[in-house]
């Protein structure tokens, strides 16, 4: 019974023994049975306990009974990315002292981890998830699926630090019949995108798009559609002009909804489409605009700076002195933020800009490709693996060429 749980929580919080609580009211044994819900009791006893503990038990019961609904509201606000509402509900939940010891504690902590991921506070989220992992056998079926989802999101958000196969390991285990949160389709789409499974990524992206539209979540619908567009890049039957029009339509939508961050992501993706087709001037323009929409303290800045310099270098669109200055900026920031992934990418750019061919391919062979391969960074494995293959063929290193071709 809820009354017993509440009495026990506040008794322990007050550092009272059962004997102290029951003194002059009932026996210690009776207190124990009330707390464990093992006996009937009169309202008068609960009122006496309440006065001794200085609490309103009925108010606590009403709050607890509404807690499930309150947590669902918080989860929905997180999915909608309504940051002010998310923070407001979090503050309200933190006022419920009993939540930490209630049957909703794990649900609350999982959503708290999700909250910190939303705010890019990944270290806090990691610590929460690590603690919950130790409780694995005690999770309810719903909590188990929520845990899998939040873990998958964590590894997506931290993909530069972990294997790109990590998110799918968690997300594919979710049972939607139990979980019923169709937002997970979006993260499953990203997970398949990370391992270069384009058909599956597109399929789940389409399901996510339907869900976001049905729930009037227009901001996230933009995310889902932009993810779908990425899967069409290498499709030989894709009409490129139509693809560009879809990107431009989404970019206009971000302007209307004042979604600066999503506009930056779309411009970055559009830049990739032009880069992939060797339209370097158009790619550079997109990357430059995307770069202006993100703060230097955001890790996304490093990605966009890398793309901007890479395009300038490939298209011979900037002076060597300017390129090296921008590359050194990237290296400094990557070191400052302990970003090994980007540090490696900027070192590659520097060696290429300096024209040191043997050092460039030596660095790919000894450091860059093994690093990308160990973390299953498919895009960079393919790109730099292909460069290494061509270099081996040109320099008559045929055994190495065969070995690398089997890895990409």
Automatic annotation (TrEMBL):
> Known SMART domains for this protein?
HTH_XRE
Listed CDD domains: HTH_XRE
User: Which Pfam families does this chain map to?
Assistant: HTH_3
Coiled coil region boundaries: none
Which residue numbers delimit the HTH cro/C1-type domain?
7-64
Which protein, by its recorded name, is this?
Helix-turn-helix domain-containing protein
Specify the species: Bacillus spongiae
Q: What does the organism's lineage look like at the top?
A: Bacteria, Bacillati, Bacillota, Bacilli, Bacillales
């Amino acid at each position: 019974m809820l009354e017993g749980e509440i009495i026990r929580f506040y008794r322990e919080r007050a550092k009272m023994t059962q004997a102290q609580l029951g003194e002059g009211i009932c026996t210690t044994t009776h207190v124990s049975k009330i707390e464990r819900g093992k006996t009937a009791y009169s309202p008068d006893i609960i009122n006496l306990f309440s006065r001794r503990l200085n609490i309103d038990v009925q108010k606590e019961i009403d709050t607890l009974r509404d807690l499930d609904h309150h947590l669902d509201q918080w989860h929905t606000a997180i999915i909608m990315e309504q940051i002010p509402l998310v923070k407001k509900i979090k503050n309200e939940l933190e006022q419920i002292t009993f939540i930490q010891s209630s049957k909703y504690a794990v649900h609350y902590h999982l959503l708290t981890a999700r909250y910190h991921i939303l705010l890019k506070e990944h270290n806090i989220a990691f610590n929460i998830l690590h603690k919950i992992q130790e409780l694995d056998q005690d999770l309810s079926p719903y909590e188990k699926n929520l845990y899998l989802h939040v873990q998958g999101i964590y590894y997506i958000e931290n993909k530069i630090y972990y294997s790109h196969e990590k998110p799918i390991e968690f997300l594919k285990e979710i049972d939607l019949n139990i979980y019923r949160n169709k937002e997970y389709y979006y993260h499953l789409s990203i997970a398949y995108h990370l391992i270069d499974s384009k058909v599956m990524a597109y399929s789940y992206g389409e399901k996510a798009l339907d869900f976001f539209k049905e729930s009037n979540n227009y901001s996230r619908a933009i995310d889902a559609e932009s993810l779908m567009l990425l899967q069409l890049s290498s499709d030989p039957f894709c009409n490129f002009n139509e693809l560009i029009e879809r990107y431009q339509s989404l970019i206009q939508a971000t302007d209307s909804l004042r979604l600066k961050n999503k506009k930056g992501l779309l411009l970055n993706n559009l830049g990739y489409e032009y880069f992939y087709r060797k339209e370097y001037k158009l790619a550079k323009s997109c990357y430059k605009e995307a770069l202006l929409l993100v703060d230097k303290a955001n890790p996304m800045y490093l990605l966009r700076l890398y793309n901007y310099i890479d395009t300038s270098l490939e298209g011979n669109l900037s002076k060597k002195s300017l390129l090296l200055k921008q590359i050194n900026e990237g290296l400094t920031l990557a070191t400052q933020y302990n970003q090994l992934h980007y540090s490696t990418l900027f070192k590659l750019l520097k060696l290429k800009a300096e024209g040191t061919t043997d050092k460039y391919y030596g660095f790919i062979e000894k450091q860059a490709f093994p690093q990308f391969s160990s973390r299953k960074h498919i895009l960079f494995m393919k790109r730099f693996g292909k460069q290494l293959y061509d270099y081996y063929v040109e320099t008559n290193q045929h055994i190495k060429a065969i070995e690398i071709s089997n890895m990409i």
